[in-house]
Amino acid sequence: MTTEGTLFESSTPPPGAPLAARMRPRSIEELIGQQQLVMPGTPLFRLLTGDLSSAISIILWGPPGTGKTTLARVISQAIGQRFVELSAVTAGVKEVRAVVDRARNDVAMYDRRTVLFVDEVHRFSKTQQDSLLPAVENGWVTLIAATTENPSFSIVSPLLSRSVIAPLQSLNADDIGTVLDRALADDRGYSGRYALADEARHHLIRLAAGDARRALTALEAAAGCLDPDDPVITLAAVEQAVSTNAVRYDRAGDQHYDVISAFIKSIRGSDVDAALHYLARMLTAGEDPRFIARRLVILASEDIGLADQSALLTAVAAAQAVALIGLPEARLTLAQATIHLSLAPKSAAVTQALEAALLDIDGGLGGSVPAALRDGHYSGAADLGHGAGYQYPHDYPEGVVSQRYAPEELHGRRYYHATQHGAEARWADIHQRLRKALGSDDE
Cβ(290)–Cβ(283) under 8 Å? Predict the structure, then answer.
């Protein structure tokens, strides 16, 4: 399926269209969020100001509802060129080649360039993406492609190398609030016919999770539940419309800290079911998944450590996955990490070891670095005795040699006390044998 023409000819929705379609920004001034992409000097700014001298192609990458399609249409309006839209869900190679052929003819005959917008370009096969290359490489089209998946994995390399990636961010709470307020006041929306109760507004913002389309769809559904004479959209109306009860959770208040505290303590206490409850509670309430992921990474070292070395790998991988794919899919990643960390054996030995070392430093217990360990590579170091007497462990069959590493004042000091929990039991034995080999337990 293809559509073409200017923004108003091809994409201005009729009055009966869904609220999200009617409220789509018509100009860059109406755009909410993503200001980092349209600052002077950016590729998008150059397109918006009509600078087509270098036929820039752009891949808009971001979560749903962040304005990818809107940006493409605003750009087409700003530059006044022929605008063609392809949906990767329905278009095939035949449709792509037809657009490319006409774009080539328009350049040759009328010196007119085509703006080609490909929605969900990650759904195109390699062959379909390759069919775009001649048009992009020869400047017949200005390609604007939209994707919710990482272009590095979903776009073929030749097309990727000829394009600029513009990452879009999920809208924040203030942005979503502005979207709702505009829909209530604007003539394309409700023209002031409804008021939105504060609790209902907060709930809609949480439900949106950074997705403007989701917020407007929920608002429209809630308005449709009202009695014709009722001008106030209440929390009850929103809950009825979207079948999701409001969770008592203030991201800036006590509930934010209470629930994350209960989440961490449940994992620390190995209660996987309680931990999953608090995770679901935070996700339903719209908590930032990156915040949850960061807390899991901290917990992996603070409460598990060497008792299960794979716990930190899982937590870090979860944090990276959250950044890569976002919600809602990242919920499963967070759940997997939560279950792993809850079931893992626990040890605070790493935490206690560092705290003990820091306590000594804070108490003034330091001392000089042994001369044998000091840097001996610079000119004059040997005259100072730096590096003299250092025994290189790899020169010894066991790879360990008895020599002093800690300052004299700290000789024999022990910070790490391994537990017998999980894999740390192995490290307890290794640590004890190494201390004897190093001569740390002589005194």
Answer: no
Task: List the CATH number of the domain containing 400.
Answer: 1.10.3710.10
Residue 139 three-state SS: coil
User: How many distinct structural domains can be found in the chain?
Assistant: 4
Torsion from C-alpha of 26, 30, 34, 39, nearest 10 degrees: 100
Which range, of 46-50, 191-195, 212-216, 398-402, averages the lowest pLDDT?
A: 46-50
Return the SS3 of 165. strand
Q: Which domain range does residue 314 map to?
A: 254-343
342 within 8 A of 275, measured Cβ to Cβ = yes
State pLDDT tens for residues 142-161. Answer: 888 898 888 888 888 888 88
265, 331: one domain: yes
Express each pLDDT in 83-118 by its tens digit: 888 888 787 788 888 888 888 888 888 777 788 888
Pair 256, 285: CB distance under 8 Å: no
Tokens representing 310 are 């794979």
| Residue-by-residue DSSP string for 287-310 | --HHHHHHHHHHHIIIIIGGGSTH
Amino acid at 341: L
The 8-class DSSP code of residue 2 comes to E
For residue 389, what pLDDT is reported?
74
Nearest by Cα to 203 from 282, 289, 285, 280: 285
User: Is residue 249 in a domain?
Assistant: no
